């Protein structure tokens, strides 16, 4: 006999009826918690302990667990079916462009921008429109290459996962493409924004196959989040 979808899942065990919501660690996790509360979703266990080594947590809704993963990994978990629902920055969606992901809701949190930045004292920065080639440090190689290719510039991307602001001063790259929130880190390292590629907020994302196979359950959570946004 099939178990009803409301049957509790065993901690640490993926039951066949479990839905998984992937949440990003860090700043966005804090910003999304009021929205989770308005949607009536309360993670249990030691979810709120930032030092916890646990990655998967039960919730007050049997059959739905949440997992905490790196922000860059949320889209991959959802695209490949490890999670059916997630909260993901638009920057990550732009970088990977997974066709398996449907992003129906802009949650309006995690506001920042993907920008091109470079040294404030670059003597020929104003001649960038005439460049045919440039070296760029970024954790967004896809976004960087597409952005410069659209301007007829070939970008040689140095792939870094952090401390991008050091790259120009250490001779790794002339420019960087990175997330910018206030610009204070750029300023502290002698850089200025040259161009904004895209404004970024976090989105609710859904695995397309899961939505087709379990439209009622996933659709119900989509409706909950939509109502929670309306109530904010």
TrEMBL record:
Chain ranges of the ATP phosphoribosyltransferase catalytic domain: 70-226
Cited PROSITE patterns: ATP_P_PHORIBOSYLTR
GO molecular function, one term: ATP phosphoribosyltransferase activity
E.C. code: 2.4.2.17
Domain comment quoted from the record: Lacks the C-terminal regulatory region which is replaced by HisZ.
Pfam families referenced in this protein's UniProt entry, alphabetically: HisG
Alphabetically ordered keywords of this record: Amino-acid biosynthesis, ATP-binding, Cytoplasm, Glycosyltransferase, Histidine biosynthesis, Nucleotide-binding, Transferase
Catalytic activity: 1-(5-phospho-beta-D-ribosyl)-ATP + diphosphate = 5-phospho-alpha-D-ribose 1-diphosphate + ATP
Assembly and oligomerization: Heteromultimer composed of HisG and HisZ subunits.
Localization per Swiss-Prot or TrEMBL: Cytoplasm
Coiled-coil region: none
InterPro entries: ATP_PRibTrfase_cat (IPR013820), ATP_PRibTrfase_CS (IPR018198), ATP_PRibTrfase_HisG (IPR001348), ATP_PRibTrfase_HisG_short (IPR024893)
Family: Belongs to the ATP phosphoribosyltransferase family. Short subfamily.
Protein's UniProt name: ATP phosphoribosyltransferase
Origin superkingdom: Bacteria
Pathway connected to this protein: Amino-acid biosynthesis; L-histidine biosynthesis; L-histidine from 5-phospho-alpha-D-ribose 1-diphosphate: step 1/9
Ranges that cross the membrane: none
Function text: Catalyzes the condensation of ATP and 5-phosphoribose 1-diphosphate to form N'-(5'-phosphoribosyl)-ATP (PR-ATP). Has a crucial role in the pathway because the rate of histidine biosynthesis seems to be controlled primarily by regulation of HisG enzymatic activity.
């Amino acid at each position: 006999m099939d178990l009803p979808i409301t049957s509790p899942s065993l901690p640490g065990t993926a039951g066949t009826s479990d839905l998984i919501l992937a949440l990003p660690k860090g700043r966005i996790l804090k910003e999304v918690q009021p929205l989770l509360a308005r949607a009536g979703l309360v993670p249990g266990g030691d979810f709120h302990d930032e030092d916890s080594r646990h990655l998967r947590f039960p919730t007050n809704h049997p059959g739905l667990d949440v997992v905490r993963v790196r922000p860059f990994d949320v889209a991959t978990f959802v695209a490949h079916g490890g999670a059916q629902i997630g909260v993901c920055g638009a920057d990550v969606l732009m970088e990977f462009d997974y066709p398996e992901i449907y992003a129906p809701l802009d949650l309006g949190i995690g506001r920042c921008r993907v920008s091109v930045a470079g040294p404030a004292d670059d003597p020929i920065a104003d001649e960038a429109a005439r460049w045919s080639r440039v070296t760029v440090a970024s954790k967004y190689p896809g976004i960087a290459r597409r952005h410069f290719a659209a301007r007829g510039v070939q970008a040689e991307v140095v792939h870094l996962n952090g401390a991008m602001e050091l790259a120009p001063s250490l001779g790794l790259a002339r420019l960087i493409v990175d997330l910018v929130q206030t610009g204070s880190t750029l300023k502290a390292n002698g850089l200025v924004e040259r161009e904004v590629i895209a404004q970024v907020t976090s989105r609710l994302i859904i695995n397309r196959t899961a939505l087709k196979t379990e439209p009622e359950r996933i659709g119900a959570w989509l409706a909950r989040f939509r109502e929670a946004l309306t109530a904010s």
